[in-house]
């Protein structure tokens, strides 16, 4: 009653043993593919971790530098500006991790929150009544009167260019892991598991426990079994090319590190622009939002404080050169894995599975 290991000679197998062999080959195939995938997956997961750690430290550094701008140059509004700054960098982080948001909405939301503070603490520091309605009016007016000039748009442009590549790379790495996990658990067809039993275990039914499959025979069986997986070859090659493109984009002139550390300077320039145009802004705001209550006396001494750009940016960018090295190492490794899915059958037949240094091997029917 054997279904797979039928042979003219006497056999020591039963139908139940054939079923056990089918379960065994399915388990072994999954383990073999997992072993092949392990190094590739380890590299991608390692890079995701390294990228996220470097990115988080970069964000913290840029956020701290931006906060220190308000503490040193714009002290009257430093406490109130802390929350908008925190929100800006949280939004940037969420964007890179794939959230349904845009860099433009994050930056413009920040400037919407910043304008009431700049207006009431720097341009008109005598304002005492900053009601919710008046604050909201200032926020909405910001969109029409553009108090920060070209600097808010420039900041959107610079950040968008560099953060886009980072967002895409982050998503691409996660996709790579998903593809690898899916191929590990690809179900074997009934014909495939029968062919694997015939190749690996049918010799046992003849008492030939040491004989192994012939190399050519193994390749034919494996290619048949893994046809659906090897079809990923073209897409995998394209995927590697995309990773290469994204890592080159990240290392190009719109570098993530430079764009994020430049946020502080962009905000400073934007505030200076608003202060220099204070009288015109006040006249427009008075027409639109009305005149707020003022404290008596002049409370606006030297509001404009130039901020010196510290050399800490250079130090920081040099420190993050290691991130560029990691990207380079990673992409070089990934380029070597271009043929991963095309050569998977060869790699599975390349170990202890087949007979290499012997004149006899199993061809599916007999010892040859």
TrEMBL record:
It is found in: Cell membrane. This is GPC5 protein. Pfam families: Glypican. Keywords: Cell membrane, Glycoprotein, GPI-anchor, Heparan sulfate, Lipoprotein, Membrane, Proteoglycan, Signal. It is a lipid-anchor; GPI-anchor. Cell surface proteoglycan. PROSITE patterns: GLYPICAN. One of its GO terms (cellular component) is extracellular region. It comes from Caloenas nicobarica. GO terms for biological process: cell migration; positive regulation of canonical Wnt signaling pathway; regulation of protein localization to membrane. Belongs to the glypican family. The keyword Lipoprotein applies. It comes from the Eukaryota. The keyword Transmembrane does not apply.
């Amino acid at each position: 009653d054997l279904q797979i290991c039928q042979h003219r000679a006497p056999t020591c197998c039963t139908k139940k043993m054939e079923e056990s062999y089918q379960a065994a080959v399915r388990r072994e195939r999954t383990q073999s593919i997992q072993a092949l995938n392990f190094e590739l997956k380890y590299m991608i997961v390692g890079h995701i971790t390294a990228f996220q750690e470097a990115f988080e430290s970069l964000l913290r550094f840029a956020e701290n530098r931006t906060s220190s701008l308000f503490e040193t140059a714009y002290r009257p509004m430093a406490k109130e500006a802390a929350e908008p700054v925190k929100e800006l960098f949280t939004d940037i982080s969420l964007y890179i991790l794939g959230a349904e948001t845009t860099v433009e909405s994050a930056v413009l939301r920040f400037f919407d929150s910043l304008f009431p503070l700049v207006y009431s603490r720097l341009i008109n520091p005598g304002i005492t009544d900053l009601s919710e309605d008046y604050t909201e009016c200032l926020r909405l007016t910001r969109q029409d009167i553009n108090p920060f000039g070209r600097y808010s748009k420039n900041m959107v442009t610079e950040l968008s260019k560099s953060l886009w590549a980072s967002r895409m790379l982050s998503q691409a790495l996660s996709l790579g892991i998903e593809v690898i996990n899916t191929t590990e658990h690809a179900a074997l067809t009934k014909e495939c598991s029968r062919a694997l039993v015939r190749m690996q275990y049918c010799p046992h039914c003849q008492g030939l426990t040491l004989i192994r499959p012939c190399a050519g025979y193994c390749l034919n069986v494996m290619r048949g079994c893994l046809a659906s997986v090897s079809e990923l070859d073209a897409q995998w090659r394209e995927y590697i090319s995309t990773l290469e493109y994204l890592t080159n984009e990240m290392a190009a002139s719109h570098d993530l590190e430079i764009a994020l550390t430049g946020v502080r300077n962009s905000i400073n320039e934007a505030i200076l622009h608003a202060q220099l145009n204070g009288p015109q802004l006040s006249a427009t705001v008075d027409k639109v939002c009305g005149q707020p209550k003022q404290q008596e006396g002049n409370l606006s001494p030297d509001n404009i404080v130039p901020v010196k750009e510290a050399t800490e940016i250079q130090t920081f960018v040099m420190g993050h050169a290691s991130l560029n090295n990691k990207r380079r190492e990673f992409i070089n490794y990934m380029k070597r894995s271009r043929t991963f899915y095309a050569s998977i059958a060869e790699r599975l037949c390349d170990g202890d599975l087949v007979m290499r240094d012997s004149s006899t091997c199993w061809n599916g029917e007999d010892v040859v």
